[in-house]
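Try this one yourself first.
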């Protein structure tokens, strides 16, 4: 952990509480604070976590319904928002969640103006763009978790199909964190071998039909989990910890976070996920990967889908 580092989590619901647990288990921060308007809930979550402190790297846990608990945090993670219901798309959540951001974000930036802000609340691309507009913060300082989780789901499935460890699969999901996201198959690698050329005696080549099936599973994964247990929480919390550690430790990790794009392959003025260097100052350089014409068209279509909703919401 970075000595003295404080991570403030806004929202003590399923994702927020799981994120706090994951941060403690990984020893990612010296101080973890939970902020939620539900005082009984947030204090109970913090107390439950504190009772296990002797079993994890040394840290302090605090829970409060007073926004002052977030003061001078190094990283602020926003998980608060309307809960996605079975069959409901992330975009369906947009209006109510953006309305919440209009009151929440100014209070947070007042107590933690220098923090790096990570938006996790869905629909994350729209929430990120709204929060940027409301806060006036630079795009490096405030960004969304984007398709980091989707990319993890993709690499998991490719690992299953090929028999190779997920950490040796290098492939990205880009675009909206939602139904219009797409896999950049043309740049995907297993080790140093292009995935499209992959063929071994123990794993067949992933042909077009197999790739399409994998991509469909990745897009539908959240719906399947929500239908079965009501929410996604473990993997998204672990994905958020990866992003937070990249910031606190200045790791310069390449992660597909959601940032406001400016002339990225012809796309501007919309928050989308693309491979981005994440380090001490937040979301830094955006990397342009090779894309086929179909992939480029898919990314532009995803941008238009987000842009149309953002316009409806007045941003």
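Now uncover the answer:
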């Amino acid at each position: 952990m970075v000595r003295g580092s404080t991570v403030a989590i806004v929202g003590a619901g399923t994702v927020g509480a799981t994120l706090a647990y994951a941060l403690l288990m990984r020893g990612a921060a010296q101080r973890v604070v939970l902020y939620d308007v539900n005082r009984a809930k947030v204090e109970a979550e913090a107390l439950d976590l504190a009772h296990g402190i002797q079993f994890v790297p040394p840290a302090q846990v605090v829970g409060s319904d007073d926004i002052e608990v977030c003061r001078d945090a190094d990283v602020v993670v926003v998980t608060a928002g309307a809960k996605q219901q079975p069959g409901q798309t992330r975009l369906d959540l947009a209006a109510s969640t953006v309305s919440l951001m209009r009151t929440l974000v100014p209070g947070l930036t007042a107590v933690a103006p220098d923090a790096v802000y990570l938006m996790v609340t869905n629909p994350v691309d729209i929430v990120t763009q709204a929060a940027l507009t409301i806060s006036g913060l630079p795009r490096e300082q405030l960004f969304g978790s984007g398709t980091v989780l989707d990319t993890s789901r993709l690499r998991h499935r490719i690992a299953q199909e090929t028999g190779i460890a997920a950490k040796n699969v290098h492939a990205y999901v880009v675009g909206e964190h939602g139904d219009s996201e797409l896999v950049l198959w043309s740049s995907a690698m297993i080790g140093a071998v292009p995935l499209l050329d992959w063929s071994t005696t123990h794993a067949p080549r992933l042909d077009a039909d197999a790739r399409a099936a994998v991509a469909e599973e990745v897009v539908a994964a959240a719906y399947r989990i929500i239908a079965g247990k009501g929410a996604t929480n473990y993997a998204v919390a672990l994905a958020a910890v990866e992003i937070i550690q990249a910031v606190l430790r200045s790791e310069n990790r390449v992660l597909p976070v959601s940032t406001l794009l400016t002339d990225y392959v012809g796309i501007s003025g919309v928050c989308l996920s693309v491979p981005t260097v994440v380090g001490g100052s937040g979301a830094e350089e955006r990397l342009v990967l090779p894309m086929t014409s179909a992939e480029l068209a898919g990314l532009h279509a995803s941008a238009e889908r987000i842009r149309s909703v953002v316009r409806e919401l007045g941003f």
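Discussion: The longest strand covers residues 2-10. The two ends are 37 Å apart (CA to CA).
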